[in-house]
Write a structure and sequence with these properties.
- With 194 residues, the chain is α/β, with parallel strands linked by helices.
- It has one domain (2-186): 3-Layer(aba) Sandwich (Rossmann fold), CATH 3.40.50.
- The protein has nine helices and five strands, in the order βαβαααβαβαααβα.
- A five-stranded parallel β-sheet has the order 2-3-1-4-5, with helices on both faces.
- Helix 2 (31-41) packs across helix 3 (44-54).
- The N and C termini lie close together (5 Å).
- The structure holds adenosine monophosphate.
- Adenosine monophosphate binds at residues 9, 31-32, 35, 52-53, 58-59, 64, 85-86, 88, 92, 140.
Length: 194
C-alpha cells in the first residue's frame, strides 16, 4: 500500500510512522530525515536545504521532488511505501500524482493526525530539537497551516482522506490509524500493490 501521513509539527507523526511501517511492512520515506541526512553528508541537496530548515521554512519543491523521485524509483518501493512529511505543498501533491500515474500506481489513502495548536505548543516545550525553538516552531506551524493544510482538501476531494484524533496515548492513536488504513485497503478500485 501507498499511504501518506500528514500532521502539523509535534503531532506525533514520527511515533505513528514507526508503528505503521512495521504494520504495513513497507519502506518509510521521511523527507525530513532524508534532508537531515543530506545536511550531515554535505550533499548539494543538503547545502540547498540547510538555511530553509534552520529558519522553519519549507525547502523548495524542486529539491524535495528530486530526492523523492529517486527514492520512489528504487525497487523496494514497488510494493508500496509510507510517505512521511511529503507531500507538503499542492505542487508536491500534484507532482506525486503524476509521477505515480506514469507508473500505473496511486496513493491508496491519506491519514491526517489532528492535534489542536495549544497541545502542539505544549509538546514542543517538552522536546529539544534544533528547529524547535518557539520562534522557529511557530513558523513551522504557519508553514503547515498555509502550505500543507490545503492538501487535506485536495485528498478529501479524491475521497482518500481519513482524519484521526491525535490526542491520547500512542497505542490508542495507533489503533485509530490502523482502523483508517484497514478501510483504505478495502476500498474498491485501489491500486493493485499491497
Ligand atoms: P519533518 O522532519 O518532516 O518535520 O521536516 C523537518 C523540516 O524539513 C521541515 O520543517 C522542512 O523545513 C523540511 N521538509 C521536510 N519535508 C519537506 C517537504 N516535503 N517539503 C519542503 N520542506 C520539507
Amino acid at each position: 500500500m501507498r499511504i501518506i501521513l500528514i500532521g502539523p509539527p509535534g503531532a506525533g507523526k514520527g511515533t505513528q510512522c514507526q508503528r505503521l511501517v512495521e504494520y504495513l511492512d513497507v519502506p518509510h520515506l521521511s523527507t525530513g530525515e532524508m534532508l537531515r541526512a543530506a545536511i550531515r553528508a554535505g550533499t548539494p541537496e543538503g547545502v540547498a536545504a540547510k538555511d530553509f530548515m534552520e529558519h522553519g521554512h519549507l525547502v523548495p519543491d524542486t529539491v524535495v521532488l528530486a530526492m523523492v523521485t529517486k527514492r520512489l524509483e528504487s525497487p523496494d518501493c514497488r510494493i508500496g511505501c509510507l510517505l512521511d512529511g511529503f507531500p507538503r505543498t499542492l505542487p508536491q501533491a500534484e507532482m506525486l500524482d503524476e509521477l505515480l500515474e506514469r507508473r500505473a500506481m496511486t496513493v491508496d489513502g491519506v491519514v491526517e493526525l489532528a492535534v489542536p495548536r495549544e497541545e502542539l505548543i505544549r509538546r514542543m516545550l517538552a522536546r529539544k530539537r534544533a528547529d524547535d525553538n518557539p520562534e522557529v516552531f511557530s513558523k513551522r506551524i504557519a508553514s503547515f497551516e498555509n502550505q500543507t493544510a490545503p492538501l487535506l482538501d485536495y485528498y478529501s476531494r479524491q475521497g482518500k482522506l481519513a482524519t484521526v484524533d491525535g490526542l491520547g496515548d500512542a497505542d490508542e492513536i495507533f489503533g485509530r490509524v490502523r482502523t483508517a488504513v484497514e478501510k483504505f485497503a478495502k476500498r474498491p478500485g485501489r491500486g493493485g500493490s499491497r
